[in-house]
Design brief:
The complex is a heterodimer of chains A (about 375) and B (about 575).
Chain A (H helix, E strand, L loop, with lengths): L21 H22 L5 E5 L6 E4 L4 E4 L3 E5 L5 H19 L4 E2 H7 L11 H16 L10 E2 L6 E4 L1 E6 L6 E5 L8 E2 L8 E4 L3 E5 L2 H9 L2 H5 L1 E5 L6 H14 L3 E4 L4 H13 L8 H4 L4 E5 L2 H6 L5 E2 L2 H13 L1 H5 L1 H13 L1 E2 L12 H11 L8
Parallel strand pairs in A: 5-6, 12-13, 12-14, 14-15
Antiparallel strand pairs in A: 1-4, 2-3, 7-10, 7-13, 8-9, 8-11, 16-17
Chain B lengths: L2 H11 L3 H4 L4 E2 L17 H7 L3 E2 H7 L9 H22 L5 E8 L6 E8 L9 H6 L20 H13 L3 E6 L7 E8 L4 E8 L7 E9 L9 H11 L4 E5 L5 E4 L22 H10 L5 H8 L5 H11 L12 H13 L15 H11 L4 E6 L3 E3 L2 E11 L6 E3 L5 E3 L19 E6 L2 E3 L7 H8 L19 E9 L16 H53 L3 H17 L4
Helix pairs in contact in B: 1-9, 5-7, 8-13, 10-11, 11-12, 14-15, 15-16
The chains are: A alpha/beta (about 375), B alpha+beta (about 575).
Chain lengths: ~375, ~575
């Protein structure tokens, strides 16, 4: 017998959710205000429009005092017309979905939201990047009112970073509501994984600093050899560009216990700008979020171009893209433009034409990094790059 | 008409040595030098014995392809064409609105033999001339005159008769009644091909008709519909001759009526004398031999158009010939000088009154009658001159298949026009096919040899991309379009006797180009408008796809009722469509 074809049924009615939180109320109010404005314009036989903040580095301003990228005043107007009618419809549909999620006290990952849109007939998204961009637009629109994507009930699919060290994370059991105390020293050969939403977390720690490590390989070495014990620090491995959750986690942790943050990266333009700069001051694309997600009191421990000379590290030549990126950083990135020390470091790298990886320290022995490099560096914190 | 002008007409008209053969004979002159007999070859004497006159009829019997009888299918069409041409010429010269009946029947039920009958309401033919007209090649009234007419040489209908006789053995049958009070006569005519003379019988009959002629020819043929068919020929004929009413019966008994769309006969055309610039040396020699004038000065003025006393004097002066020289006494070398002098002298263009173009309005009438399209235009160029012969180029365009098109309503909505099914002989091709080119010379459709024709070259040579059409390199443009091109002239320069293609004289190519460009410019405006509309339609469709989603999303967020949603949808549609400018 042939299998029965699945016939979609309307979802069963959910039991009434609890009272709305204040943030949910604000989010709903924003969605409704936006829709009311559009509808009002239609009733007046006018052309409705949505104004989105311009999400690009062009519209980012770096303020040393604030310590992160601030969104400028530039707005992108999207007036309903032939060219915009599709994305206009999609934006409103996405807001409608967000409202539905809040009403049902549920969430959707970015990828799930993309699949939900497949039920929107012609208005569906063809590729996930389209739905992600629409989501970012809405988030940017509402960020002016302090609403984040997480408040819109959209979650990233991305992994969180890894944590090891003298830290107890306070979380809540979803079913019982009981507080959970998660000891990050007790994961043995594993590590605590940062969840995609970190707003509800609390921290207890006696550590002196946070060490954010670019590669998981280096993170494992330091955590397995209990470097955190001797250095009294919390180790966080980001595996490349830190995700939003990781950045928020570091920020919250740093804020709650006034802990300095040290970044330990490769020595190449990508590590400087995409990884370190994003961690510290945020990115152009998420300029509307930087106030929450940046870690302004982060400093760059290494590996610096000077380290390459000081420790006689093995290097690789810069590729064309590296050179281009470095030149672009000097020319267009407000962060690097604001810091002479960085300009010097980048110039030095460009002149030598060389880059080095964290693991290059292994030339002097596998645990050279624990026994020599890091302790020596930690003695001269003032020399860290800003 | 005086004898003199007839002669002038004769000599000016023949551009081709073949036509100048006196009394329609081709003669091989005995050859001069003696062949060496010691080489074992044929002696000149032996050759001389075999050399004799060939009759034109014999010549064409062997070379029937020259007249358009090379295949059975083409033969049937050519026969119809020649008979229809003759009928129309006769009607128009008699200032009678033509009423034609054409029929094709299978001969004794055979599939490869047909009887073709064409009946007209023309002035008829007098008894003495009937056998000559239908039973003698190169006999007619048209060759000797510089006058715009369909027939030119007097070969066509008798060649058809000869072909019929050759393939079926049956004689040409003619009924003729020259006037209301004259007795209708019936003829059976055979052509004696060795003598080029008719052999006939005639008798009095009853024929209830005021005046007219009917010709019936049995011939071998092949009947097929579609392109290059009799039906297509008649349809095209109807396009260029909207004053003709034509009743057609096909071999299966189906009747098609090509309706008259105007009661306006083509303008009566005048004959002109040859223009000096169009006369070749050989003809000039012959004209001077045959002139009735006593002096060269008189001859120039009397025998040619546009030569007055001062121009005659100028020519003679340039040639170094005294104007009072007897033209018959001029040595050939002096005639050569005279010819050079003529060419070097500025002479006013010949009178253009001898040209009767169809006219822009009637071209459009004709196209509208036979070609379904949604846009028609025409251009009629002023007559000009090639080699001393006036001609005029006319172009017309029928563009766009009805049904392929969009229209904007008064409310600013764009709607698709309902599609109609095309019939078998529809002239208009599909949007992704090459355009259809229809060619005419003196209102006669040219069916064959499209590629060899100057008209085709001119159409290909026109850059249709400028007018919004696609055009592959060196080919006809692509699009749902029929291009109509007509050349009207006192002497149309065909590339062969079967009158299928126009020769590419520079003056003619130039005029063709200008005419097509003029049409193209008018077309371009229309095509661009259509493209704009199509583009707009696409965009509006797009808008209308997404507007409901905008409204549904708003409805979900704001929880308003259906009525509000309906009004929002209506408002949004109005705003988006109204705000779009065309």
């Amino acid at each position: 017998m042939a299998a029965k074809k699945f016939i979609p049924q309307p979802p069963p009615k959910k039991k009434d959710r609890g009272p709305l939180s204040d943030l949910d109320k604000i989010t709903l109010r924003e969605i409704k205000t936006c829709a009311t404005d559009v509808h009002g314009e239609i009733e007046k036989l006018g052309k409705p429009e949505l104004k989105f903040p311009d999400r690009s580095l062009r519209n980012a301003r770096y303020d040393k005092k604030d310590g992160y990228f601030v969104m400028g005043r530039s707005r992108v107007e999207r007036t309903l017309s032939v060219n915009t009618v599709k994305s206009f419809a999609q934006t409103l549909k996405m807001m409608s979905l967000s409202k539905e999620l809040i009403d049902a006290d549920d969430f959707a990952t970015k990828r799930e939201a993309y699949y939900v849109s497949k039920n929107w007939d012609e208005a569906k998204f063809d590729e996930q990047p389209e739905s992600d961009a629409t989501m970012d637009d809405i988030e940017a629109l509402f960020s002016l009112e302090g609403v984040m994507r997480e408040h819109l009930r959209f979650k990233a699919d991305e992994h969180g970073g890894k944590v090891a060290g003298e830290l107890i994370v306070l979380d809540r059991d979803r079913e019982s509501g009981r507080q959970l105390r998660i000891d990050c020293t007790g994961f043995g050969s594993g590590a605590y994984s940062i969840p995609s939403s970190v707003e509800q977390l609390g921290f207890e720690t006696k550590a002196k600093c946070i060490l954010v490590i670019e590669t998981i390989g280096m993170f494992e070495r330091l955590s397995q050899h209990n470097y955190w014990k001797s250095a009294h620090c919390i180790l966080i491995g980001t595996a490349g560009v830190p995700t939003r959750a990781t950045r928020r986690f570091v920020r919250k942790l740093s804020d709650s216990h006034k802990l300095p943050v040290f970044a330990f990266n490769d020595c190449d333009p990508y590590a400087f700008s995409n990884i370190y700069r994003t961690l510290k001051v945020g990115s152009g694309n998420a300029v509307h979020l930087n106030q929450f997600f940046c870690v302004p009191n982060a400093h760059f421990l290494g590996v610096t171009p000077q380290d390459i000379l000081d420790y006689d590290l093995p290097t690789h030549g810069l590729k064309d893209v590296d050179v281009k990126r470095a030149q672009d950083m000097l020319k267009n990135d407000p962060f690097f433009q604001a810091h002479k020390e960085w300009q010097k470091a980048i110039d030095m790298m460009l002149k030598s034409g060389q880059r080095a990886e964290q693991q290059a320290l292994a030339k002097h022995g596998l645990n050279f990094v624990i026994d020599e490099y890091l302790p020596r560096k930690m003695k001269e914190i003032s020399k860290f790059l800003p | 008409m005086s004898k003199k002008t007839e002669q002038q007409g004769l000599f000016a008209a023949g551009g081709d040595a073949k036509h100048n053969g006196s009394e329609a004979k081709l003669a091989k002159e005995p050859k001069g030098p003696k062949v060496k007999s010691d080489t074992g070859g044929v002696t000149a004497e032996a050759m001389g014995q075999r050399q004799r006159e060939i009759s034109v009829s014999e010549f064409f019997t062997k070379n029937r392809h020259l007249l358009g009888f090379d295949s059975p299918r083409k033969a049937l069409l050519t026969a119809v064409k020649e008979a229809v041409d003759n009928s129309l010429d006769a009607c128009e010269e008699g200032r009678i609105l033509p009423d034609l009946k054409v029929s094709i029947k299978r001969l004794d039920g055979q599939d490869d033999k047909f009887t073709m009958t064409v009946e007209d309401n023309g002035p008829g033919i007098v008894k003495a001339q009937v056998p000559n007209v239908f039973g003698r090649l190169l006999y007619g009234s048209k060759f000797h005159r510089l006058r715009q007419s369909r027939g030119q040489q007097g070969i066509g209908i008798s060649a058809a008769g000869m072909y019929g006789l050759l393939t079926t053995g049956n004689p040409v049958r003619v009924r003729s009644k020259p006037g209301k009070r004259s007795v209708p006569l019936y003829f059976e005519i055979r052509i004696d091909s060795s003598k080029n003379r008719p052999i006939w019988t005639d008798k009095e009959i009853d024929w209830e008709k005021d005046h007219g002629t009917e010709v019936a020819i049995d011939l071998e043929g092949e009947y097929r519909r579609g392109q290059k068919s009799v039906e297509e020929f008649l349809k095209l004929m109807a396009v260029a001759n909207p004053h003709v009413q034509l009743h057609y019966t096909d071999p299966d008994g189906n009747v098609t009526e090509y309706q008259r769309a105007t009661s306006e006969l083509p303008k009566e055309v005048e004959e002109i004398k040859p223009h000096p610039h169009g006369v070749e040396l050989g003809i000039l020699i012959k004209m001077l031999q045959d002139t009735e004038c006593k002096t060269i000065g008189e001859s120039l003025q009397d025998d040619f158009s546009r030569v007055g006393p001062s121009v005659a004097k100028e020519i003679c002066g340039l040639a170094g010939i005294k104007p009072d020289t007897n033209p018959r006494r001029l040595a050939t070398e002096h005639v050569v000088k005279l010819k050079k002098a003529i060419d070097a002298t500025k002479i006013m263009a010949p009178p253009l009154s001898c040209i009767a173009p169809i006219g822009e309005d009637l071209i459009i009438t004709g196209l509208k009658k036979e070609v379904e399209a949604d846009f028609y235009l025409a251009t009629s160029r002023k007559p000009v001159v090639y080699r001393g012969r006036p001609f005029a180029i006319e172009c017309g365009i029928a563009y766009g298949k009805p049904g392929d098109t969009l229209e904007m309503t008064a409310e600013g909505k764009i709607v698709e026009v309902a599609v109609k099914k095309p019939n078998e002989e529809a002239l208009m091709g599909a949007a992704d096919e090459p355009i259809r080119l229809i060619r005419f010379a003196n209102r006669v459709p040219l069916i064959f040899q499209q590629a060899a024709c100057a008209i085709t070259k001119a159409v290909i040579g026109t850059n249709w991309k400028n007018y919004g059409l696609q055009q592959p390199r060196g080919a006809l443009p692509i699009g749902p379009m029929v291009v109509f091109v007509h050349i009207a002239s006192v002497w149309v320069p065909f590339t062969s006797e079967s009158k299928e293609a126009i020769a590419g004289y520079d003056e003619i190519l130039d005029e063709l180009r200008l005419g097509l460009m003029e049409c193209g410019r008018k077309l371009g405006t229309h095509v661009r408008k259509g493209k704009k509309l199509a583009n707009e339609f696409k965009k509006r469709n797009y808008i209308e796809t997404y507007i409901p989603h905008v409204v549904v999303a708003l409805k979900d967020i704001l929880k308003f009722d259906d009525k509000t949603a309906q009004s929002a949808l209506a408002n949004l549609t109005t705003v988006l469509e109204k705000s779009r400018k065309l």
